[in-house]
Amino acid sequence: MNAPSSINQLHARRLGLLSQHEAVALVHVDCPICRSEGVSAHSRVTLTSGGKSIIATLYQVSADWLATNTIGLSETAWTGLGLDDKGEVTVTHSPPVLSLSFVRQRIFDDGLNERQISSIVRDIVSGAYSDIHLAAFVTAISARPLSDGEVTSLTRAMIETGDQTEWDEKTVVDKHCVGGLPGNRTTPIVVAIVAAHGLLIPKTSSRAITSPAGTADTMEVLTRVDLSGDEMRKVVRQTGGCFVWGDGVGFSPADTDIIRVERALNFDAPGTMVASVLSKKIAAGSTHIVIDMPVGPTAKVKNVVEARQLSNVFDTVASAFGIHLRIEITDGSQPVGRGIGPALEARDVLAVLGNEPNAPADLLEKSCVLAGAILELAGIAQPGEGKSMAEDTIANGKAWAKFLAICDAQGGLRELPEAKYKRPIYAPFNGRVASINNRKLARAAKLAGAPDDKAAGLDLKVRLGDQVCQGEALFVLHTETIGELTYVLDYVHANPDIIELTH
Q: What value does the mean pLDDT take over residues 294-302?
């Protein structure tokens, strides 16, 4: 192999290393650049090839499988540089990330102004932040809540560092749930109802952060969701709505990295949630937004006081951007629907839209409440008449027809997968269902394999207040492997308060 043309250039080697979103580079400990550039393990370096540059984390190896004139690249680094079968990569020190001083300030001081937040977000989007830096930032803005001004600034910075879409229509609607409630898969139903009434609803959704399924996870079971921005606009123009994974369309790219680290840390701070939601809605061109806020002792929002506080932040930030906002505070005492996990939730959605007799009544009811709120906010329905209009749209089949049209435009409707293993969890005695722990049910569904295993999760068989007999199924676990089934069974048996019965 010929020597590279300069001491800072190395032959690129594709390692097939999966490092998620972080670009990683490996060099031999005796590599010349380690001496010439003074880099060491875990240094941040700039890699350049063919006019493209990325920032990567450098690691060193002492084994001979990597030559001293070669740099091994993770998949993220390889594709980021646009390399084919071979190429040369120039390696230099990355410039100092000045905005990290603002992260430290947020940890120890009173807060950040708009310029400082904008600087942090720009550096996140450019790739200057490693996962360690991102974790520090996410922790700094989670441990001490963001002020309303900081949330507004974070929202604006997220919008400005990504793509934005404008529509000819004056009214563009959207809906979002703050989360914390298993099941609750109202979005696909709401989109179908609203689009059937001629409104534009360019719905982008996230994958699960701390839950067993996000809307994108569920809809991915049924149709393609990883559309580009141009593909999304084509589908919306054709059908009036869409079901799109938000990461694929370039809206609020900083949010993608922040959510990824929040998921790893199991954080979901109110301020970042508001900025995340509104930045993507505004970037998508939405003008009228309905927020579903479930409130319950084991939901994300635990009581009315917290709901009002969060509602005030939403209202303040939405007002700063001229957005018409309506918040629906809903019952978060128990899951909505029966399925918890992508395929099981998709099954419930299809049952409601298809007017099936066994469709979950609570999912139908809540979907029509939220769709009705959008129809009223957009001026399609008179106040108090939106819910009945939404119910008619389900009953007459127009919502189902619109749902099929959107799925067809996105690649067609898929068959639902089924889990290999199913295990019922039975009532230990005769009694009444006194409480359902949303968080522990969600945890059980995640241990079963959701959302990564699309068919995994659990199927809830009871509701609050139900009378059950000893030996009657409370829920059924769905897993893809025996190992996951054993693991989740251990968790369920160790947490009998997942569903509590009273005599």
A: 92
